[in-house]
Amino acid sequence: MKRVCILIAGLVLSASAAAQQSNREGMWEFGLLLNNLSSESLSSSDGASIDIDSSTGYGFSVGYNFTERLALSGEFSWNSPDYDAVLISDDLANTPVEISHELDVYSLFFKGTFNFIEGPFTPYVEASFGWTEVDSNVADSPPVTGCWWDPWWGYVCETFYSTYSKTQQSYGAAAGLRFDFRNRMSLKGSYGIQETEASKASGDASLEVIRVELSWLF
Question: Where residue 92 falls among pLDDT bands split at 50, 70, 90?
């Protein structure tokens, strides 16, 4: 919460330096973002569980401003949080197995945004829907080695691994502040919740998301 307050205060101070009218309507925008995902713990009825650490990731977005207030966009982001998991072996004793590793989390969202003010500085709300792929980075089968002739390196052999991964539906909502600079750059900061379905867990994964985005209008 402290980071959110600092982010909001910075945007408010920046906004006090400008008084020009916004000109978002009918313009595209491309953004680069940082997003911080909170930690989460999930468990299943058979005793398996996972504890996921918080992490900071990256992403980009492309959107179109239909009016000063209404915009639609697409966003892709990725995070790599550490995790500790307890797995239940498929044997007569149901022996638990503990592992510590790093997840790769990829998210693709489509977002609708509503700006409350037709001006360079405005609070906004947004709703999102999309898909999240979670890769455990744990091999689900023996490795496969392939070899080929490379025009530069000669005869090359590489070993490839298939890992446990799954893609699930995700949705979320957020509220934030936006400031449009004079040079068609924009700074946005938001706080929201991202829900991702977890079919075998006792509940869906619910993550707090703090996001900072720098974008360009064109």
Answer: low
Mean pLDDT throughout 165-185? 95
Q: What's the domain count of the chain?
A: 1
The residues, any chain, with a CB within 8 Å of residue 158's CB and separated by 6 or more, are 145, 146, 147
In a domain, 123, yes or no: yes
**What pTM, to 2 d.p., does this model score?**
0.81
CATH number at residue 66: 2.40.160.20
- Helix H, strand E, coil C: the string for 43-67 is ECCCCCEEEECCEEEEEEEEEEECC
Give a yes or no: residue 143 inside a domain.
no
Give me the domain span that covers residue 131: 2-87+104-136+167-217
Closest CA to 61 of 83, 34, 79: 34
| b/e 133-160 (16+ beta carbons within 10 angstroms → b) | ebbbeeeeeeeeeeeeeeeeeeeeeeee
Alpha helices, DSSP H only, in the chain? Answer: 2-15
